[in-house]
Amino acid sequence: MGLWFTEKQTDNFGITAKIEQTYHTEKTNFQKLDMVETAEWGNMLLLDDMVMTTEKDEFVYHEMVAHVPLFTHPNPKEVLVVGGGDGGVIREILKHASVTKAVLVDIDGKVIEYSKKYLPSIAGKLDDPRVEVRVADGFMHIAESEKAYDVILVDSTEPVGPAVNLFTKGFYAGISRALKDDGIFVAQTDNPWFKAELIRQVYADVKEIFPVTRLYTANIPTYPSGLWTFTIGSKIHDPLKVKEDRFFEIDTKYYTKQLHHACFVLPKFVEDLTV
């Protein structure tokens, strides 16, 4: 009999993976952290018994968080990632030559430490000279920043524990102040099957603050339901009006310039959450 891990995604549903070995388990100052090897998904990072990322499907989430806003902005130079201690979003940001500085602010340094050790294909760019890593509270970093960034990417866990404040209207207002006059931000906003009201509330809050607000989706098999949403807020630039000459060839496995537009075409029950 093998060892199996189940993430209980609702009271009545979960996702199960066969565990080959456990590399590390620890109760950090902020959350329970486990790094395991799975038979299907390769190495997997778990926080508070929730799947954060895996070697096999991580590219979907990280590419879609990063490239949709970075191609929408005409000249992104200074970019902030709130959370994202595994380093995957940073890796994707650095594929844009215009970026001169990528700041990562994660409250839990242990996530960074063990991602570097056990997820090198994801965290391998955290030592790049364009990257500044800060172990700090992202909520406070936003509150203390003003017109500092072209693009802000909120790569948070689900709204539990230290991430609760990252799903509030006050946080989005702080992001608006931390962005330059033509800035853009994206936040992961969970799934429409189990967290419909969360998506509806976040979208409404962001829409009150940002002139351009849109919802888009991606398929991420190890996340609850497999259908994941992202909310983009922009002061000026519309992701659906990006000119053809803005796109350039980029090394990706999921994101394409065609998908850039297609990901905003929503199933009716998801579109209804934005009304």
How would you portray this structure in words?
This protein is an alpha/beta fold. It folds into two domains: 3-52, Spermidine synthase, tetramerisation domain (Spermidine Synthase, Chain: A, domain 2); 58-274, Rossmann fold. It has helices at 58-72, 88-93, 109-118, 120-123, 138-143, 169-178, 196-209, 257-262, 268-271, and strands at 3-10, 13-27, 32-38, 42-47, 50-54, 78-83, 101-106, 131-135, 149-155, 179-188, 212-219, 227-234. Helix 2 (88-93) links the parallel strand 6 (78-83) and strand 7.
Tell me the layout of helices and strands.
Elements: E1 3-10, E2 13-27, E3 32-38, E4 42-47, E5 50-54, H1 58-72, E6 78-83, H2 88-93, E7 101-106, H3 109-118, H4 120-123, E8 131-135, H5 138-143, E9 149-155, H6 169-178, E10 179-188, H7 196-209, E11 212-219, E12 227-234, H8 257-262, H9 268-271
Euclidean distance between termini CA atoms: 49 Å
Strand order of the largest sheet: 8-7-6-9-10-12-11
Secondary-structure class: alpha/beta
Strand segment tally: 12
Please tell me what the overall shape is. Answer: globular
Report Rg.
Answer: 18 Å
- Tally of helical segments: 9
The CATH architecture of the largest domain would be: 3-Layer(aba) Sandwich
Let me know the average pLDDT.
Answer: 95
Spell the H/E element sequence: EEEEEHEHEHHEHEHEHEEHH
> Largest beta sheet, briefly?
7 strands, mixed
Name the helicity range.
Answer: 25-40%
| Total domains | 2
What is the CATH homology-level superfamily of the largest domain? Vaccinia Virus protein VP39
The top-level CATH class of the largest domain is Alpha Beta
Sequence stretches where pLDDT stays below 50 over 5 or more residues: none
What proportion of the residues form beta strands (DSSP E)?
Answer: 25-35%
Within the CATH hierarchy, at the fold level, what is the topology of the largest domain?
Rossmann fold
